[in-house]
DNA sequence: CGTGTTTTTGAGCCGTGTCAACGATAGTGG
DNA sequence: CCACTATCGTTGACACGGCTCAAAAACACG
């Protein structure tokens, strides 16, 4: 599936995309680029003339800290544009890197911005995306601040699983190949690897969720989301989430 | 100063505001409302038809958690519109409340959205705001996750002080009446009141910053920002920050 | 002046980090 | 196809940062 189509598909999760808007997006010049795991797309402090769109695999953004820890501040699924913020601030304050082997599209920031500005509907759609990103950020703040390790971890798993479902990444059996290492989960949650491991064990022993050979399987969605205090509506995946909620693999 | 002017002033921090845009904003119907400390503007889960603009005082947004803790996820200075996110998602997932006695303006969300959409420059300006909000969120994630209590607290103080300066809230002597209680700082930082208190003492004893009778005084900006790992550029207060940097009260 | 809130301090405990080691798994080159 | 090696996951022991409980001091307000 070409880049523009993936983008369109994702936008369609949140509302109708008109033929006009589709044609605008299809006109974008997008250059493919393969990334290996851990490959850096954009370095903290750099200025960038290009935007990135995720085609397959996952990207994440992190801030490297003086105490040589790193904080992962966001995770990006196929169809997403991780660096929209460079629209108005060409310097970025975090490093964008590939979580696993990924295929991304590189496009001119100016061109994308121009294209978006040609359609009020597209402007709305992208602006809306950044607001949803904000809602996700707030949840991460809460997870890292006051939810505690178990609820925080559960919340992250719920969020990632829901977003993975929306990106159509679940297998028939409802599992998802979680590309994060436990170290990376810890970097996102502000926990040590060791404690992430223990927390995952607790979730496993409580029959809430299990990661087996890299695949995340939610054993009991009600239990997991209760532990997390997770309510997916902030992700605004209305229609799509509904598709999964009614498909009998345990969402809801 | 009328509401629209405060809004214009703030937008002007980030770039020129044309007369056309000003006239659009001045046409907005804004109803004043006084708030006492802790008064709730918008409750978690509510749907809102109105937007709020802060005129004086401060607002904050928090998420209440099942473990009866609360996480403050954002703080809002005069000139800001805390609930822009309701543009595309009428339900809000956090409670918006007044930190101290405040004056806000209430305006129709639909009308504001309409007004903004009439000017590409305004659209850009507001979208840009939400992206800056995102940059702030990322910093809070990092503070709550991996910076540790001392650096996290210092970072929050740096951020609030810088934003207070941009909102022209500093006294001649460079102090600012920090309206947060230590409990609220803790709610923002994911720390207990007790520990916030101890951390502030450490900052005080290190001659970095001191809160005396509710006023925050930065004793040594270089030291405080070094502890925090703070770099104000993510706030994009370019010109304005420069004004303070050269005013000899210790910023830079 | 009295009452409620906020700040400050102490003492003790618990969650989470650190260190260290081993096991599992996957990729690599012979 | 099998060592070899690197990375990741898992577990235990122990230390420490930050939480809880509790109470006093400072402050704000009517």
SSE run of chain A: HHEEEEEEEHHHEHHEEHH
SS field, number of helical segments of chain A: 9
Read across the widest sheet of chain A, the strand sequence of neighbours is 2-6-4-5
Portion in beta strands of chain A: 15-25%
Helix share bin of chain A:
40-55%
User: What is the typical, i.e. mean, pLDDT of chain A?
Assistant: 92
Number of E strands of chain A = 10
Give unreliable regions of chain A as ranges: 245-252
How far apart are the termini of chain A? Answer: 29 Å
What is the subunit arrangement here?
homodimer
Largest interface: A-B, 50 and 50 residues
Largest sheet of chain A: 4 strands, antiparallel
Gross morphology of chain A is: globular
Decide which structural class fits the backbone of chain A.
alpha+beta
Radius of gyration of chain A, CA atoms, in whole angstroms: 18 Å
């Amino acid at each position: 599936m070409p880049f523009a189509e993936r983008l369109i598909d994702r936008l369609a999760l949140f509302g109708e995309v008109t033929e006009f808007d589709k044609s605008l997006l299809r006109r974008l010049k997008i250059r493919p680029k393969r990334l290996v795991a851990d490959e850096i797309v954009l370095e903290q402090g750099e200025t960038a003339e290009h935007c990135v769109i995720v085609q397959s695999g996952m990207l994440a953004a992190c801030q490297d800290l003086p105490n040589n820890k790193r904080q992962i501040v966001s995770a990006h699924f196929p169809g997403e544009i991780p660096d929209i913020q460079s629209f108005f601030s060409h310097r970025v304050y975090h490093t964008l890197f590939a979580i696993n082997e990924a295929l991304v599209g590189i496009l001119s920031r100016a061109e994308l911005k121009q294209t978006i500005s040609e359609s009020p509907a597209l402007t709305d759609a992208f602006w809306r995306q950044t607001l949803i990103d904000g809602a996700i950020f707030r949840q991460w703040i809460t997870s890292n601040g006051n939810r505690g390790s178990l609820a925080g971890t559960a919340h992250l798993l719920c969020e990632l699983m829901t977003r993975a479902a929306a990106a159509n990444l679940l297998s028939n059996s409802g599992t998802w190949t979680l590309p994060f290492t436990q170290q990376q989960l810890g970097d996102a949650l502000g926990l040590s690897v060791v404690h992430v491991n223990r927390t995952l064990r607790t979730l496993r022993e409580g029959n809430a969720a299990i990661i087996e050979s890299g695949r995340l399987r939610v054993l009991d969605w009600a239990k997991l989301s209760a532990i997390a205090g997770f309510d997916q509506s902030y992700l605004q995946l209305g229609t799509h989430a509904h598709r999964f909620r009614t498909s009998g693999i345990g969402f809801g």
